[in-house]
Amino acid sequence: MFYNYPYFYYITIGLQVICAVHCLRKGNQRWLWLIIFLPVAGSLIYIFSEMFTGNDIGKVQSGMGAVFNPSGKIKKLEDNLRFADTFANKVALADAYLQAKQTEKAIALYESCLSVNFTTHEYVSIQLINAYSEIRQYEKILPLAKQIYNLPQFIRSRAHMLYAVALSYTGNAEEAEKEFKLLKGRFSNYESRYRYGSFLIRMNRQEEARKIFEEMLHETTHLNSGERRANKVWLDYAREELKKIPNAA
Prior knowledge:
about 250 residues; mainly alpha
């Protein structure tokens, strides 16, 4: 059958990876389950609904190259930037650097994009927040986040959670807790909830942290297998932290 053809399998996996990474980076988590459980149809629907802005079918081809040959994609983007030093080329290369964990290079390019003309560019600011968090430069996250705080795409993004983390590590505990509480929700936001629990432990509020971790783990019995896989790392972290909290007297 056609579905057993190996090329079809590899293409399907590639599309799933591209769409999943894109939706997570854009804060479109509501699409994730469609992509996981309907890999072909879900990925195609997501591509034409969220990734295409009109005429750029090359985005899919470029994305496939990023999955199977990331260094090749980076070299091509570096060549593009040398040929034309444009805002779009800088952002594309910075995104590729960030995805490849070349964080310092990504930061340098993102920062160069926030010139006089683009001091509040929301996408670049969100990407910079992600990059600064990778190398724990929390103090640099705060002014960026405050500039774009009221934008809908920020409130829905992972960058909002990283802003709360940055507040917690820069002596702004009260503000950090306020942001963490905004991100709470049952059967969702497991990374944010884990990081909130970790913050509470640092504040010597172990029993409150225990409650958060126990709620997270209790919910696993109501998650389907795809949801458990998607959140496994944070649930495992919560389980390990729970073991370290001493039992109440």
